[in-house]
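To: structure subgroup
Subject: Chain for Friday's discussion

All,

I'm putting the inputs and outputs inline so they're searchable in the archive.
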Amino acid sequence: MAESDILARLTDVLAARRRADSDSSYVAGLYARGGDAILAKIEEEAAEVVEAGRGADDAHLVHEVADLWFHSMVLLLYRDLAPDDVLAELARRFGVSGLEEKAARGRGD
């Protein structure tokens, strides 16, 4: 599988899992348990990313970030959003100083 289309393919799979029996799929089970269960899993994965980031094993860090991204995608689809929405936000910010962007948020923008 080419890395260039992995987000689109994974999005399709995750969307299909929304319609699956919760006993047939880990992701379908997460969807069935609802937003709080998905958020708890994201909290767990984020903590594992921080722990891995403190270590020296780059492969472990990549593994944990992949888990976090995966579960973040589950949340996006649960909320009827998609990775393209995040990519559009990143594109909007591209070329804008991080300091400017942060200041704009402080003004309620």
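Points worth raising on Friday:
The chain has a mean pLDDT of 92.
The helical segments are 6-17, 26-33, 35-54, 58-78, 83-93, 98-106.

D.
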